[in-house]
Design goal:
It is a single chain. The chain is of the alpha/beta class and 251 residues long. It folds into two domains: 176 residues, Vaccinia Virus protein VP39 (Rossmann fold, 3-Layer(aba) Sandwich); 64 residues. Helix content is 24%, strand content 31%. It contains seven helices and eleven strands. It has a seven-stranded mixed β-sheet with strand order 3-2-1-4-5-11-10, with helices on both faces. The protein has a four-stranded antiparallel β-sheet with strand order 6-7-8-9, with no helix packed on it. α6 links the parallel β4 and β5. α3 crosses α4. The chain is globular.
């Protein structure tokens, strides 16, 4: 799941435990290591850029996230990466980056047309002319992944102090239409040491490949490649992901 709940410092410290390194991270790391300058939008705790720096990336690495608690974790681990609080409206971008990424389904928190358009236009402005690429992932709506977000599938993780935290999700509403699907759900954290559970409510937007391409084109971007999983298989109705590689349209 994405990191809607992690504005709390104690929960932000759990984020990497809940989201351990996996095939998607390997996919993005390969792209980052081959790019001279990289912007990670919705970087969270900065796990991707931290790893890239640790593995020898010597170029410009910048992460931006609206959750201050997440950036506290990022700065502690990698003070030599530039971390920025906010979203893509935080500054004016001027073709600064060879690669812009949005990992961990962060793209899906852009729930309105206006948010999507503002973000994508800013991404277009941030890309270097010529070879700049924007790479992001979304869950495939055709696979209906939210049907598995039920309380009986709760996970239990262990905090640094050895105490257990139980994490569960529950879908509250699904609203669909010609402009995509919107899924509203709760994320609940429970621990014996807490006097009450910590609960947040969030909404994600699901867009299919055609709708993604339309929004990208409107912002001056074109789809170069799309994959259905981290092994770069084609997108099908059963694919878990829609992984998109986009480039700037010629002026």
């Amino acid at each position: 799941m994405v990191d809607h709940s992690f504005a709390d410092l104690s929960l932000a410290a759990l984020y990497d435990t809940l989201n351990p390194w996996g095939p998607g991270d390997d996919f993005y790391l390969g792209l980052v290591m081959s790019a001279g300058s990289v912007l990670d939008v919705g970087c969270g705790t900065g796990q991707l850029l931290r790893r890239a720096r640790a593995e020898g990336h010597s170029g410009v690495l910048m992460g931006i996230d609206p959750a201050a608690a997440m950036l506290v974790q990022a700065r502690r681990a990698a003070p030599d990466v530039h971390w920025m609080l906010g979203d893509m409206r935080a500054k004016l971008w001027d073709a600064d980056f060879d690669l812009v990424v949005m990992t961990g389904h962060a793209f899906q928190v852009l729930v309105s047309d206006q948010e999507l358009r503002l973000c994508l236009r800013a991404v277009r402005d941030a890309l270097a002319p010529g070879g700049g690429r924007f790479v992001f992932d979304t869950r495939n709506p055709a696979a209906r992944p939210w049907e598995a977000w039920t309380p009986d599938r709760a996970r239990e993780i262990t905090r640094a102090d050895g105490t257990a935290v139980r994490v569960s999700h529950e879908v509250r509403a699904v609203r669909g239409g010609p402009a995509g699907e919107w899924v509203t759900f709760t994320e609940t954290f429970e621990a014996d040491a807490w006097d009450r559970p910590r609960v947040s409510t969030a909404t994600l937007r699901f867009l299919d490949g055609e709708m993604l391409a339309d929004f990208l084109a409107e912002a001056g971007l074109r789809v170069v490649e799309q994959y259905g999983d981290w092994a770069r298989e084609p997108v099908s109705s059963s694919s878990p992901e829609i992984i998109t590689v986009a480039a700037a349209l010629a002026p």
